[in-house]
Amino acid sequence: MAFGITIVRQNNQGLIETLGKYRRSVESGLHFYIPFVQRVRKVSLAMSPLSLPNYSIITKDNADVRASLTLNYHVTNSVKYTYENTDSVESMSQLVRGHLRDIIGRMDLNEALGSTAKINQELALAIGDLTNTYGINVDRINIDELTPSTSIQAAMDKQLTADRERVASIAKAEGEAKSIELTTKAKNDALVATAEAEANATKTRADAEKYRIDTIQTGLSNADDKYFKNQSITAFSDLAKSESNTIVIPSDEITELGKLPVAGKLLGTKK
Known about the structure:
By secondary structure, this protein is an alpha+beta fold. It contains nine helices and nine strands. Residues 258-267 have low confidence and may be disordered.
């Protein structure tokens, strides 16, 4: 009897079928089989990446979002993977999409867009171990992109622009109000400073005038009759120099004034 030879590579598993029916599994290495009667299927046990394209999901508030995710899986049971499902990978993909729709469908749009880490965690727990169902285990799953539809994105952009303009308007109004407040305060401070300066100047002038008056009064209190007569002569001298040609003095002072040469000279100058 002739035998065929096959080699099962590392990290693979061979499934030997006899007349189309599964008989046994073989590990990596060299194996013999009967040609035309037996067949060896080779299944990779290595981790494989899978990218799920964008697809539509409706959120709790009826917003349409597009989801894109990637995952890594590996075959844990080659018999279930090969014989119990016609396409275990596609079945797994549909299961992942279904769980993702359920998770996001219980969230509002804003919550979903800001909770990708939470969604990844819930999705991993929801999928669990798929060995008993599809002979596959999902090692890692991650949402790469979660974006609103074009119309919703446009509405969000308008809302964002409106919010920014509102914040800018508030900031501008607050700035103008602060400027007015500072200007008013500066003017008030200037008025107060001016009033205080004028008050201080008035007080200084009053103090100076009081000092002058006090000094004069002190001097007058110590002055004798000769001082006042000298002051009278000075006053008469000033009058004699003026345009007036008439001088009125008390009669009891004439004799005394005549005794003074200076007074006589002053009186003699007028005709």
